[in-house]
Design goal:
The structure holds two protein chains of two kinds. Chain A is an alpha+beta fold. Chain A has helices at about 25-30, 90-95, 105-120, 125-130, 140-155; strands at about 5-10, 15-20, 50-55, 55-60, 75, 85, 160-165. Chain A has two domains: about 5-80, Beta-grasp domain (Ubiquitin-like (UB roll)), CATH 3.10.20; about 85-165, [2Fe-2S]-binding domain (DNA polymerase, domain 1), CATH 1.10.150.120. In chain A, the strands form two sheets. Chain A has a five-stranded mixed beta sheet, covered by helices on one side. A two-stranded antiparallel sheet of chain A has the order 6-7. In chain A, a hairpin with a 2-residue loop joins strand 3 (about 50-55) and strand 4. In chain A, helix 2 packs across helix 5. Chain A is globular and about 50 Å long. By secondary structure, chain B is of the alpha+beta class. Chain B has three domains: about 1-55, Uridine Diphospho-n-acetylenolpyruvylglucosamine Reductase, domain 2; about 60-115 and about 165-215, Uridine Diphospho-n-acetylenolpyruvylglucosamine Reductase, domain 3, CATH 3.30.465; about 225-325, CO dehydrogenase flavoprotein, C-terminal domain (Enolase-like, domain 1, 2-Layer Sandwich). Chain B contains twelve helices and twelve strands. In chain B, helix 11 (about 285-295) packs antiparallel against helix 12 (about 310-325). The longest helix of chain B is centred in the last third of the chain and has 17 residues, at about 310-325. Chain B is globular. The chains are: A alpha+beta, B alpha+beta. Chain B: Keywords: FAD, Flavoprotein.
Chain lengths: ~170, ~325
């Protein structure tokens, strides 16, 4: 069966390629573009590890065909902040221990960032409702909610991406 | 997932032409959140998908006019959860959307696709079982593992309808506008959803070469309020064990009109007409709600493992009626 041409803007760069229609967005991102920050978890739309942003909204990239992203913009964890810097949401997860093993983190961060663009000052209920679709088996979610709360505060104060090296 | 071809037609007529005669081998694709799940599990094996999300004539608009609220088939569950008109005029729908799936799926899933999603019965969802709903001769759940299955027996299949929105929309007396090769038709959702039969092993009467264009909710009656309550086996992100949508219009200090619809108890949204009849003309109080809840479940015929749904449904009905008749609650 025929491949189809697709053009998708990924992290600000337009990418044109041929894909089999059955190619899931997560495989296009990982296998064709090498963007392995998007993790594969359950492949059934349950866990949220593969969350990316499609036109700024969080979606599960194992539940989206690449052809569905044709003409749209995708943001992965690699594109959230300029190379070598941490987005304020990433910095807040670092500082507030919003992760342990890190497997859910790219998806969790992209979900949180989309929430904060929509609602810059969410209460805890709103944060928990927003991350319902991102499973974390390490933290018990408490530190994740705290990270999002801190990120909201920092961003309200005008926080910008900061160099990663300063933290290591 | 098996290989398939993909087409992105420009017009609805082109899409309908591509769907015509496909009889299941050609399927429309919108958000894909249920279809891809079925295809990954080898339950649906289309040879070709027709992308209807790019059709200019099909939209996600939510608009109010004299006939009520019109919702384009491509409106996402996230749109419904947040839309001010839906929240004001059809809060049961906004609450049902917010309670469905997870945020990432709500950003992709459309109202049209949500109404067409297939049951979550584990026998139906297993490629190892050729159950009656998939064209076989036997419903394995009927005498098998049936904790999530139907209380009301309408069909050889005892799977329940999985849609939260469907339950709310039937309570809101909504209808769907459909378009097929012969033109357009409108059906109330009570007519649209129909238990599967030997000749039609789906949960609705949509033809394979027909598309949902929009959903319409009539203007709410004066003093009408509504809500949707959902019981799950965890707090969020699960299908309804039981869902209850209730809409009640007050007539002075009495109930003027009521609709009570149960999800998770039948192959289609289940209207509790006995309970509705019992409520009309009465003054709302806890005793009335309890009698209505009992009446709603009086005809239930539980299977071996799902009897727990009866007290669960009764409780949700009582709570929903209390919520929509409580003084001081926001009007709907």
């Amino acid at each position: 069966m025929a491949t189809v041409p697709v053009t998708v803007t990924v992290n600000g760069t337009e990418r044109t390629t041929e894909v089999e229609p059955r190619t899931l967005l997560v495989y296009f991102l990982r296998d064709q573009l090498g963007l392995t920050g998007t993790h594969i978890g359950c492949q059934t739309g349950q866990c949220g590890a593969c969350t990316v942003q499609l036109d700024g909204e969080a979606v599960k990239s194992c539940m989206v065909l690449t052809v569905q992203a044709e003409g749209h913009a995708v943001t992965t964890i690699e594109g959230l902040a300029p190379a070598g810097t941490l987005h304020p949401v990433q910095a807040a997860f670092w500082e507030e221990h919003g992760l342990q093993c890190g497997y859910c983190t790219p998806g969790m961060v992209l979900t949180a960032e989309a929430l904060l663009r929509d609602d810059p000052d969410p209460d805890d209920h709103t944060i928990r409702h927003a991350i319902e679709g991102n499973l974390c088996r390490c933290t018990g979610y408490q530190s994740v909610v705290q990270s999002v709360r801190v990120a909201a505060t920092r961003m309200a104060e005008g926080a910008q991406p900061e160099p990663l090296l300063r933290r290591s | 997932m098996r290989r398939f071809d993909y087409a992105s037609p420009a017009t609805i007529d082109d899409a309908l032409a591509l769907l015509a005669g496909g009889d299941g081998a050609v399927r429309p694709l919108a958000g894909g959140t249920d279809l891809l799940t079925l295809m990954k599990a080898d339950i649906a094996t289309p040879e070709r998908l027709i992308d209807i999300k790019r059709l200019a004539e099909l939209d996600d608009a939510i608009a109010l006019d004299a006939d009520g609220l019109s919702i384009g088939a491509l409106a996402t569950l996230d749109d419904l959860e947040d839309d001010p008109l839906v929240r004001q005029l059809a809060p049961a729908l906004a609450e049902a959307a917010a309670a469905a799936a997870s945020p990432q799926l709500r950003n992709m899933a459309t109202i049209g696709g949500n109404l067409l999603q297939r049951p979550r019965c584990w026998y139906f969802r297993s490629s190892l079982v050729h159950c009656w709903l998939k064209g076989g001769t036997e419903c394995q759940a009927r005498d098998g593992e049936n904790a999530l299955h139907a209380l009301f027996d309408q069909s050889p299949c005892v799977a329940v309808h999985p849609s939260d929105l469907a339950t709310a929309l039937v309570a809101l007396d909504a209808s769907v506008r459909l378009r097929g090769p012969a033109g357009e038709r409108s059906l109330s959702l009570g007519e649209f959803f129909a238990p599967p039969t030997d000749d039609r092993r789906t949960e609705n009467v949509l033809a394979p070469d027909e598309l949902i264009l929009s959903v319409r909710i009539p203007p709410p009656a004066d003093n009408a309020r509504g809500t949707y309550l959902k019981a799950m086996d965890r707090k969020v992100w699960a299908f309804a064990l039981v869902g209850v949508a209730a809409t009640v219009a007050r007539d002075g200090d009495r109930i003027g009109a009521a609709r009570i619809v149960l999800g998770g108890v039948a192959q289609t949204p289940w209207r509790a007409r006995e309970a509705e009849d019992l409520l009309v003309g009465q003054r709302p109080d806890a005793d009335l709600f309890a009698r209505a809840a009992d009446a709603a479940l009086a005809g239930a015929a539980p299977l071996a493992d799902n009897g727990y749904k009866i007290p669960l449904a009764r409780t949700l009905i009582r709570r929903a009626l209390a919520a929509v008749t409580a003084d001081g609650a926001p009007p709907a």
